[in-house]
Design a protein that fits this description.
Radius of gyration: 36 Å
Shape: elongated
């Protein structure tokens, strides 16, 4: 009856053994440890049991009742009746299943049990594994438990770390990521998405809803930066907002929903399809435990849209029928916003008055009063605006106001002014003049039509005809600005329509056909194109060879012709093609054109049409934007420049535009973009609603006023009191209340320092993975100039000769899912390879490969295996000291390595009570991160002698804490203690070994007390608790003040949040005061001045 099996629903526990059956129910037994209580029994139905044979090389434990001893071996063959096992010294034995045991996959709680049963391995395993664990725990502590942070192929930016930490440490992960355009909201969301996958690999479902133009970009980011190859299209879905059927399917059962460009979906005045999308997201968001909305749009002029986004986050607090009260709330914030915006070091002379005004507006804010007092102390003596004390005092006060009076604490906004060096500057516009065309005659003919059309307005009140006139004239203007062929075709269509029998009445004014003929007579679109192509090529040649150019055209046809011409001119041009093709999305095996442009020095020009104005990232390096045309839509010009002006450093962005010297329309529009909107000097992203409103007004007035309408717009826009500056001032004041305070460098210093030690990280990883577990490391072929050559880990099976990886193939394939690249060159089913890795972050980011870090799937699989396998957990060795060892008798010392971390069981109980359901895997991950953030986990080593006393530090340093040296070192040589040595020791020193198991337990308990009462642990606990309680007092004060300023459902929601935070933090304080202390490694060293042969021959 006895056989090995896997039980359905408990696959993660690994192999069990069927030991009995009663009817349809079997009793299965899991093997945990060789100690008496190490057998765990469970009942399961026959249908839930799947028989399994043990794979070759599987590690097994064999118990000999006659000797009362355990032996360790590996499987040579499982024939279904029994198992052929190879023990030490190549002793092969055939055993029935009942005598063979395999550890389940849960971690080893106490390796002292294995040491007590004399199940040990070479000390090299323990040394290598300890170095691996120390590096792993150091990274985990520095990252505050956010495993996706270090394991994503991204640069570590403080403002993004802050956002990610706020989201991932909140049990309710429902946030609006509102960083300004170009600061990397996609990076923040990607890290959070990756963490959702890592937190619960088996039960997550992520739906990422994006505009159709961004589908390809998102998919590539998830693969190249966030390593989600094993999950994309399986449990992580990127779907276009326009695809209803795919949306419904992806949202069904989603645990995390991410909506990019969420303001589009939340627009209150949108068409029916967008309203249907919003309702679909709203219903799904009610069921999903986590929700991320991404939008950089300001609150000002978008109050209804913002309310609809906040409703998705907190539907009970932000009701859709309370639009007027929400608008009123925004208006009331303006006065406070104006004061806060003035709190800058440059206004030091006026700060006293500003503080009086602020305290008058917020009289009940005690914390604000204290901070104001601190700031006033810094104002004594007329300090310089760069004075550190003044800067810090202002920073603390603004941080308090922002955290307390932010519109909603779930809005996370960083602004460019806070984050320097991550986005390039804009360097203005230079016109490339196009001469010699008949554009002046064309504009005169168009103007003649416009004047005649306006003269007829008083004679016609037909709304349909009036609308037709507006559309036609706008089309002519668009044609002059973008593509003259479009203007020509518009004229032809209107002329043909008027000439058709029965349509004569369509003519709005007398002789309109003649006016149209006059336009067509001078509309030479071929000449227009040829002259522009010549000017473009000539000016591109004048650019330095180091500069890459992106040429934007409004139409595909123009872009095709431009690309072909530049290729004929040998200007190294490449035509960009859209990366989204219906249901296929994109070919992931082929780099898109823009990536080839970015990577290859052989390509100097990328020619794009309108499709490329969204969805591609071209930042970094020395690039210029060339506008082959300038559409009458400033937001499109902004989008073009935004392809380069975004997250990722680069040279200042210079723009060029082709301008017909004789065109009044083109010249005035260029002047409006340059001096009115100033789009070539700064981003328009925060002005998009003003831009849309003014653009609509412009189009309405074009027919009546012609080019003068553009001149009037320019007059309204520019100047210190113009629309643009006034709007920016209002937006800046509102944003000042909502922006996150920039993190100080010291807040991320530990993380950056840890990550920069990439050589040490690589050495620790390779010592365990390559040199000890015997994976091969295969260098990756690459043409890129990288600091480190990326490499893959390859599994080596026992059948192929040479050294075999110390993990059975079956176990490897099960445990390393998500870490294996099944399409890796050179990999096979029996010799699979991992994805490529690099320990150097810059190499990983540049190459789009996986950082060798805590959180990486391969590293996590190694960690999981290392926790459940006894190799590296217990060791025994004989160390012969050649000279100087005090005393001649055999001395015995035990080493215990402890892992110390915050205890989270009480916090878990609190969260369960709050949610009224058991905490999930993802919930526990949140609490573990919070524990790590407050009290960084660490490893602690304790040496004790056979009585449980600590040796002196000098003795430890000289004889114990030195590297394992099987080939000898300066004054010692080491020998691994094998089962035969234990046999000899038991025979020669029964006083030591008759109660060996109890001795191991006793000295472990002594070591535990030493670790528990160590000054290092005491200091760490004290500092962690002092820091946490101090920070929490400030947060509680902010929340309490905020609650007092709120009413109704908002106040109740914030009060519930404050109560939960207090209870969770109290539980975590208790978990720091009495942390978890677990034995991770247990070993013994026999110190002697004699060689081990004295017992071998005893």
């Amino acid at each position: 009856m006895t056989s090995f099996c896997v039980v359905k629903g408990f696959e993660s526990d690994g192999l069990a053994k069927v030991i009995s059956r009663s009817g349809n129910v079997c009793t299965v037994q899991y093997f945990d440890s060789p100690r008496g209580a190490g057998q765990i029994k469970r009942e399961a139905t026959i249908g839930a049991i799947s028989p399994k044979k043990l794979g070759r090389n599987s590690r097994v434990y064999v118990y000999s009742p006659s000797e009362d001893l355990w032996r360790v071996g590996r499987v040579l063959e499982d024939d279904g009746e029994g198992i052929l096992v190879r023990l030490a010294h190549k002793q092969d034995v055939y055993l029935e299943y009942e005598h063979v045991f395999v550890r389940w996959k849960r971690g080893i709680d106490d390796p002292s049990d294995f040491l007590g049963c004399q199940i040990t391995e070479t000390p090299q395993y323990a040394e290598a594994r300890s170095r691996f664990l120390e590096s792993y725990i150091s990274q985990r502590g520095a990252a505050k438990g956010i495993s996706s942070l270090l394991s994503s192929a991204v640069e570590l930016e403080p403002h993004q770390i802050d956002v990610v930490g706020r989201v991932l440490n909140d049990p309710s992960q429902r946030y609006l990521l509102a960083d300004e355009v170009g600061l990397g909201k996609t990076i923040e969301a990607g890290i959070i998405i990756r963490q959702a996958v890592l937190d619960d690999p088996a039960n997550h479902r992520v739906a990422i809803v994006v505009p159709v133009a961004l589908v390809a970009q998102w998919r590539r980011e998830l693969l190249a930066r966030f390593g989600l190859q094993a999950f994309l299209d399986i449990s992580v879905f990127v779907v276009a907002q326009e695809e209803d059927d795919h949306l419904v399917e992806a949202l069904d059962g989603a645990t995390l929903i991410v909506v990019d460009e969420a303001h589009h979906m939340a627009a209150a005045n949108a068409d029916e399809s967008v309203l249907r999308l919003y309702e679909l997201i709203r219903q799904a968001a009610l069921r999903a435990s986590r929700l991320l909305l991404l939008s950089a749009t300001p609150i000002l002029r978008n109050e209804d849209g913002f309310l609809r986004m906040l409703h998705l986050l907190e539907p009970a607090v932000y009701r859709l029928d309370e639009r007027e009260s929400f608008r009123t709330k925004i208006e009331h914030r303006q006065s406070l916003a104006e004061t806060v915006a003035m709190l800058e070091p440059s206004h030091a002379l006026f700060l006293d008055g500003l503080l009086d005004d602020l305290l008058a507006k917020l009289p009940n804010d005690i914390r604000l009063s204290d901070l104001a007092t601190d700031l006033r102390a810094q104002l004594v003596g007329d300090p310089d605006e760069s004075d550190p004390g003044l800067v810090d005092a202002l920073r603390n006060l603004r941080a308090h106001v922002s955290e307390t009076y932010r519109l909603n604490r779930r809005i996370l906004r960083n602004r460019r002014r806070q984050v320097s060096g991550l986005t390039p500057e804009r360097k203005g516009l230079e016109s490339w003049v196009v001469g010699g065309s008949s554009i002046r005659a064309l504009e005169s003919a168009i103007e003649a039509w416009r004047i005649a059309a306006n003269a007829s307005l008083s004679k016609s009140s037909d709304a349909k005809q009036l609308s037709s006139m507006h559309r036609f004239y706008e089309g002519l203007v668009d044609g002059v600005l973008e593509d003259l062929n479009f203007a020509r075709q518009s004229c032809i269509r209107r002329r043909d329509k008027l000439c058709k029998t029965g349509n004569a009445a369509e003519a709005i004014f007398e002789d309109e056909l003649q006016y149209l003929d006059d336009i067509l007579a001078v509309c030479d679109d071929r000449e227009w194109m040829d002259l522009r192509l010549v000017a473009l090529a000539e000016n591109l040649r004048r650019l330095p060879a180091s500069v890459k150019a992106i040429v934007f055209c409004s139409s595909k046809q123009v872009a095709d012709e431009v690309s072909e011409h530049l290729r004929r001119e040998n200007l190294r041009a490449l035509r960009h093609q859209s990366g989204y093709e219906g249901d296929d999305h994109l070919n992931l095996d082929q780099d898109p054109d823009w990536r080839r442009f970015m990577a290859s020095d052989a390509i100097g020009v990328l020619v794009c049409d309108r499709d490329a104005e969204e969805g591609i990232n071209l930042q970094g390096g020395n690039k210029v934007i060339v506008h082959f045309d300038l559409p009458l839509q400033p937001n499109r010009v902004e989008q073009r420049i935004g392809r380069v002006d975004r997250y990722g450093s680069g040279m200042p962005v210079r723009s060029y535009a082709l301008v017909d010297v004789a065109s009044k329309l083109q010249s005035k529009w260029v002047e409006t973009l340059r001096e009115g909107w100033r789009v070539f000097d700064r981003s328009l992203s925060s002005l998009q609603y003003v831009v849309e409103a003014e653009s609509s007004n412009l189009r309405e007035s074009l027919l009546l006023e012609g080019v003068e309408a553009i001149s009037e717009l320019l007059g309204r826009l520019r100047g210190p009191n113009g629309i643009v500056n006034s709007e920016l001032k209002l937006i800046d004041q509102q944003d000042a209340l909502d922006e996150l305070t920039a993190m100080r460098e010291d807040e991320v210093e530990a993380l950056l320092d840890c990550d920069s030690e990439w050589n040490s990280i690589r050495d620790a990883m390779h010592y365990w993975i390559k040199e000890t577990l015997l994976f091969s490391v295969i260098p990756e072929e690459t043409k890129k100039q990288l600091v480190e050559v990326p490499s893959r880990f390859q599994y080596c099976p026992p059948e192929r000769g040479g050294q075999a990886t110390l993990i059975p193939l079956s176990g490897f394939l099960d445990q390393f899912l998500g870490a294996i690249d099944y399409e890796a060159p050179g990999g096979t089913s029996s010799r699979p390879r991992s994805y490529p890795h690099a320990a150097h972050r810059g190499t990983a980011v540049k190459g789009g490969i996986r950082p060798l870090r805590y959180g990486d799937e391969f590293v996590e699989a190694i960690k999981s295996f290392s926790d459940s396998d006894d190799r590296g957990r217990s060791f025994a060795m004989w160390r012969q000291i050649h000279t100087g060892l005090p005393g001649r008798r055999l001395q015995m010392f035990f080493r215990f390595g402890f892992l110390i971390e915050a205890r989270i069981d009480e916090a878990e109980h609190i969260l369960t009570q709050e949610k009224t359901v058991p905490t999930s895997v993802a919930d526990r991950a949140v609490l573990r991160r919070r524990g790590d953030a407050l009290f960084q986990p660490f490893t602690f080593k304790v040496w004790v002698d056979e009585e449980g006393d600590m040796p002196s530090p000098e003795f430890t340093d000289m004889y114990l804490d030195v590297p394992y040296a099987k080939n000898g070192a300066d004054n010692y040589i080491d020998k691994n203690i094998e089962s035969s040595h234990f046999d000899a020791l038991r025979a020669s020193r029964p006083d030591l070994f008759d109660n060996w198991s109890q001795r191991c337990s006793r000295v472990r308990d002594h070591a535990f007390e030493i670790a528990k009462n160590s000054p290092l642990l005491f200091d760490r606990k004290r500092l962690a608790l002092e820091t946490a309680k101090d920070e929490d007092r400030g947060r509680y004060a902010q929340l309490a003040t905020r609650i007092n300023a709120l009413t109704g459902s908002e106040s109740r929601a914030e009060q519930a949040r404050l109560t939960l935070e207090q209870h969770l933090n109290d539980a975590l304080y208790a978990g720091i005061a009495t942390p978890t202390i677990k034995v991770d490694v247990a070993g013994v060293i026999f110190l002697s001045s004699e060689p081990v042969s004295v017992i071998e021959h005893a």
